[in-house]
Amino acid sequence: MNVQTTEKSKEQLRAELLKPDVITGSEILLRSLLLEGVDCVFGYPGGAVLYIYDAMHGNPDFNHLLTRHEQGAIHAADGYARSTGKVGVCIATSGPGATNLVTGIATAYMDSVPLVVITGNVATTVIGTDAFQEADITGITMPITKHSYLVRDVKDLPRVIKEAFHIANTGRKGPVLIDIPKDVSNATCEFHYPETVNIRGYNPTVMPNKLQVEKMLEAIAESERPVIIAGGGVVAADASAELLEFVEKTRIPVTTTLLGLGGFPSSHELWMGMPGMHGTYAANMALQSCDLLISIGARFDDRVTMKVKGFAPQAKKIVHIDVDPAEIGKIIETAIPCVGDVKNVLQLANQKAKPAKSEAWIETVKENVKNKPLRYKDSDTELKPQYVIEMINETTRGEAIVTTDVGQHQMWAAQYYKFNHPRSMITSGGLGTMGFGFPSAIGAQMAHPDRTVVSINGDGGMQMCSQELAVCAINNIPVKIVVINNQVLGMVRQWQEIIYDNRYSHIDLAGSPDFVKLAEAYGVKGLRATNKEEAHKVWREALDTPGPVLVEFVVRKGENVYPMVTQGSTLDEMIMGDSE
Amino acid sequence: MSIQRHTVSVLVNNQPGVLQRVSGLFGRRGFNIDSITVGESEEPGLSRMVIVTTGDDKTLEQVSKQLYKLIDVIKVVDLSSNPMVARELALIKVNAEPSARPEILGVVETFRAAVVDIGPSSLIVQVVGDSDKIDAMVELLKPYGIRELSRTGVTAMIRGSVK
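Output (structure tokens, whole complex):
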């Protein structure tokens, strides 16, 4: 018997996909996604997408991961996108399936994550009649998508998909929704996938104005106390190498926002940590005393600026580099705007970049970094959450992909995990979505089967998408799921302590499941630690276990995140708390 | 920065939902809409919206930049920064017993408006002009009793060959 390889080459597959066969909308969708290079789709079937799911049946080229909730699917697609820079794709049915995606779409929109979100809808003949499982999902999601389509004719489908991928992953990236009525997914036409995209109203400015870049370089050369605030735009533009070169040429200290973590190596001598509400002393003080502020792909979020009217008060000039012109001047008046893709801007700047007069300033910054590091009061009787993060950092040598949920553990992960690579911190920054941490890790692990993916969650957020444990178990997705359990909604507790005068209102999470048993109920290994010794032991065991593991760390209940700047205060008014 | 009235012309793809995209953007960003009109433009497939909004220069800059972020928006022009023609149409149904009609017709004539319907006890007056003229007309007709008033909102264009 002749042994023939069944594996098709990429060219063979492409040629097959591009054949002008008469096929259904569902097959058009599948072929188009494959032509866009999508290697994993996250989804959940239902009535309005059954033709699409039927087309998947027996298709060996199409890889679909069934989650247990649509929210799990879209956060997984988001984690896939953030960890790779590719477009994440998810599929849900009409009505409740589609509305279950809303939180995930808003999450991706706020953090500029490229997603193509595919929803089914009721047939075009009954749209608008309040048909079973009908929802106007394009209407509902208009404020939280970069663009959306309701496809009424199967002939439009290839063009729409081509455009959706292009829009999602160019300019300022973001989610694009394609709503496909059931009859359209079953209608047929000859398949022609367009090679190019031509959208008249969409031409993002990616090349900067040379004059503006030169003005920036002049301002740098004159400055004595410059600071760079680097945000998610650096990571999104894959511009970390360019940023590093820029910093070394100009000698400007750098602070990276929550979404910018990993965009600049934390081991670098000019890195000051994260700025803002829970930023480091060095970063916040530098922002408050700099004479030149350069924002690179950061949008002056209120969690970073705090009281805008007292932000960077000594900055004579503010430079703002952003691919989205609408960000310029939105929050802070900007002297030198540079609209363009961060990578292009920095490449251009690096050709002529010269050092600032910053050596004395660098000494001040370094002293602050050294004298006021992040610190906490450790304990030998209780397990401290910061200690757990430090342990995770040390054992993974800062090389893991870390996804977090939202709350205190998120801030501790941002503070105590040392991110040296872009796309290794995956967290919901803008929207602050609880329930994001765990499913986003599934997506990241699907994209990086050989890397260690650690998902750090609180006991609150873990319960918002814990059903996805089944997905890890069934598919043997080896995510290391960390639950930092302090038995309360920690960040809310912290606010109620500091801002609401110890009036603790509805934060007690008593009644949470036994997380170890919960994991085991799904067939995932569960481990627990309540002290340092156990922590090291079970964490080592988790790392040495090939499949998924959930590790619960029972930590001190009343621990707070410090430093902290309360709302209405300026960045130099930090509460140092235990870190003093 | 002073709060001013701005007239903004927005050229958009004539797609379903485009009015919702534009008006929704104004709503959620906290921009004001005094009036909005939409109709076909000189180019097939494109519509022109004319939006009258109030705000300072910074708000207007954001209005324009945020509008450009919409994929269906092709061009945004602040008409009020140029010499422009702005017109609005109003239909006013006013109480008009036969004895009062001559007086009302006098007002209509002065304003170069037109009577487009006569009922047993009412008239419909059609008036075209800038918003101030229509305001004035409405004020003058108020004493007779306005039964119904319908205004289109402003549509506008830059004068001459300025683009």
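The first strand of chain B starts at residue 4 and ends at 13.
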